[in-house]
Design brief:
Layout (H helix, E strand, L loop, with lengths): L3 H10 L6 H12 L5 E2 H10 L6 H13 L3 E5 L5 E5 L5 E5 L5 E4 L3 H14 L9 E4 L2 H4 L4
Parallel strand pairs: 4-6
Antiparallel strand pairs: 1-3, 2-3, 4-5
Helix pairs in contact: 3-4
């Protein structure tokens, strides 16, 4: 994962415009990189920063960042598209009550399981998606 300044420098070098909206959206991803963001999340946070960006503009910027391999898009069971900075492959733990999403990294065990699935089923795995659904500590009413 590159840092924000490296990405901005690349944009300048490649001749892309550095609009305040583009830079603010990129900033949101780097400040909240542990939590995937929806278009609505981004619009709300931009508004809090007094940056006016309609839905079309936000989606256009997200598509630009996807095409530049900065962010990736995924969808959970609620059908909402979310975006996050491209990083090491990971999965998500989703609270069914408050919809909070945490990134979860799994060890080498999953890789060996994947190889076993390929071998047993004579199937070449290209990618996979694995999400865990439950209740976060707050929604369980458990104190830290």
């Amino acid at each position: 994962m590159k840092n924000k300044n490296e990405i901005l420098d690349r944009f300048k070098k490649d001749g892309f415009r550095l609009t305040s909206t583009r830079e603010a959206i990129l900033d949101l991803f780097y400040k909240k990189s542990k939590t995937p963001l929806s278009c609505q999340d981004i619009q709300k946070q931009l508004k809090q920063k007094n940056i006016s960006a309609n839905k079309t503009t936000v989606y256009r910027e997200l598509e630009f960042m996807r095409n530049e391999n900065i962010i990736e898009e995924f969808q959970l069971d609620d059908g909402v598209k979310r975006y996050e900075i491209i990083s090491n492959h990971h999965h998500h733990a989703v609270c069914l009550k408050c919809r909070n999403i945490k990134c979860v990294e799994l060890g080498k065990e999953l890789e060996s399981q994947e190889k076993q699935i390929e071998k047993q089923n004579k199937f070449k795995i290209i990618s996979h998606s694995l999400e865990f659904y439950g209740l976060c500590q707050k929604c369980q009413g458990v104190k830290k």
